[in-house]
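User: quick one, fold this
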Amino acid sequence: MRVVDEEVEAFAALLGAGDRRGAIQRAVELVQDGGSLGDFVFGMLAPAHVLVCERAARQRRLTPAFQQMATDIADTVLGVAAGNARPEAERSRLVVCVTEREHQNLPARILCELLRAEGHRVAFLGRPSHTAGVTKVLEQLEADALLVSCSLPMNLPCVPQLASAAHAIGVPVIAGGNGFGVDETRGLRLGADAWAPRIADVALAVERFRAERPALQAVEAEIAQQQELTAIRRALTEELADRVEYQCGHMLPRGPRSRSALRSDLHNLLVFLESAVLCDARILADYADWLVGRAAEQHTHPRLVPAMLGALEDRLIFDLPAVGEPLQAARAQTAMAA
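Assistant:
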C-alpha cells in the first residue's frame, strides 16, 4: 500500500464529498502561497483525483456519475488555479484534441493549462466530431502543431485520421498521453511526427519543427483490417458469446448477468484488438493480463480468458491475418498468468 500525503488525503476527501467550494478555496491557498501551477497539479490535484477514484472503485461505488462529479470539480479547480498563473511571452500556437471515445478530458485540460502557463497559445477542441473542424481551426490559428492526447490505448484508432487531416495542410502532429505507451512506436505508426511524454517535450518538438519542418510521418498502421474489425464488431461479439457459452459453459459464472458480462468482455477484447492490430500487439496482451487479474479477484475460472482469446483467434485468423501477432502475444501472456 502506498503512503499518501495528508494534504492529498484531505484534498481527495473534498473531491469525493462533492465539496466544490472547499476544493477551490484550498487550491487558491496553495497557489497563492507561492507554488507553481505544475507543483499544484502534479503534487495535489492529479494524485488526489486518482486516489478518490481508486478508493471508490475498491468500494464498488465508482459509478459514471461519481467519476463525473469528481472530475468536474477537479476541472473547475484546475481553471481557478490556472487563473493565478502568469504566463511568459507567447512561444507557439498549438491546437489540442483528445481521441474519439475518450470520456476523460482532464489529462488534456491539464496539458493545456500547463502549456499556457509556459507561454504557449493553446486552443482545446475536446473530442472532435469530424476532422474537417480540426483542419479549419488549425488553418485559422496558423497552428505550429496539433497535439493529440489519448489516455487509453483502446481509443487510438482515430489517430491516423487526425494526423492525415493535419498533414493535409502541412501541420505536424505530436502524440501524448498514456494511451500512446512508453515510447514513440505507437505514435509514429499512427502518423504522429513526435512523441511528448512530458510538457517540456512539447516545446522541444515545436522548436525542432520550426528549425526544420519535418517530412510529415506516413501512417504505417493496418488501417483496412482494423476498420473491418470495427465494422463487424457488434455481430461478432454475439457470435463469439454463443461460441464461448457452448464450448466453455462450465467456466462461466452463474447468474442473471452472466451473458451480459461475457458480451462486455468480448466486446472490449475486440476494441483492444483493433488498436493492437493498428500499432502494437502489447495493447491486447496488457488488457488480457488485466482481465486475468480481475478473474482471480472475482474467483472466476482461470482458463476463461485464454478460452475467449482462443475463440477469437479461431474465428478471425484466416480472414484477418493481422490479428495473429496480437492474439498470440495475448495468449502467451495469459497462459503464464492463469
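User: anything notable?
Assistant: Strands lie at 93-98, 121-124, 145-149, 173-176, 194-195.
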